[in-house]
Fold this sequence. Notes:
Elements: H1 12-20, E1 31-37, E2 40-47, E3 63-69, E4 79-82, E5 85-88, E6 96-101, E7 106-109, E8 114-122, H2 123-133, E9 138-141, E10 147-148, H3 150-159, H4 171-189, E11 190-192, H5 205-217, H6 225-232, H7 236-247, H8 251-269, H9 274-280, H10 286-297, H11 301-308
Helix pairs in contact: 2-4, 6-7, 8-10, 8-11
Amino acid sequence: MTTSSNSANAYGAQMAKYFTMNQxxxxxxxxxxxxxxxxxxxxxxxxxxxxxxxxxxxPSEKAYVVSVHLNHANSGEWELWTDDKYTxxxxxxxxxxxxxxxxxxxxxxxxxxIDWIHYHVPRATLDSLxxxxxxxxxxxxYCVYGTPDPTLHHLxxxxxPCLNRPEMFSQLFMDSFTLMICSHLVGRYxxxxxxxxxxxxxxxxxxxxxxxxxxxEHLDGDIKLETLADECGLSVSHFARSxxxxxxxxxxxxxxxxxxxxxxALLSETNYSLVDVAxxxxxxxxxxxxxxxxxxxxxxxxKWRREHSRRRSFVEIPKDQFLQPHE
Length: 327
């Protein structure tokens, strides 16, 4: 699990340099700490001024940058250009992830404050681990930007206290940590060269992950059942039956429940108005949020907030608050 050394690789101070190119003079990275090993590099970047202008492109290399947000980003704040294809995210909670293939031509813009952990993962590391495990190599890693990943967030939290003390990261620890990170990335986000087997009775694991990602991308419901079915390689009727078997409810009901769960996190962890919460969770207005919330929870958002508010500065959504398919 080794890669060639290159001072231009996208981690540490070099990553900070890429992000501040093309920025106004007042824009600066407030803090950069990193732990660098050949098989995995970990960088934390904090910039209170954000990145108000589109960054320069990061030079191509055979690696991924997997980013974990440690602060909440509002809807539409985070913009991405990949090979000139433009993407604008919805609300990005704490623990939300992004995946950038550094062989593509990528640049970003985020005018709000940022606090990120970036994992620089060489393709050679992923291929070596896959070969050792006897599983197909990942063709690519993919996720919708902002996808909540409680597992990766938890692993990240375990190393935060030690990032400014690189001597704490022994080779054995880094080998173990790299194995955990990369096994999770391949298990959840990999698309392989081999065809996926067809599962009877419900959605296959990769189909379930893809549908959850699409719902996160389209919280407002602006996606057709036909599109969901096409993404899974199924007919609409087969998809509808399989979805209900996997998730225990219809696709539409699942989306409503997901919106309400995210709304609960925003209500308890932020001071957003109900209008803002509605906008962040895909509801057309406050009235629509109130109706759906009361139907699911049995109380209005205002009443629920009074009973569950916590004095916290940003959103943190526990793992069990995200609906997952039945085993």
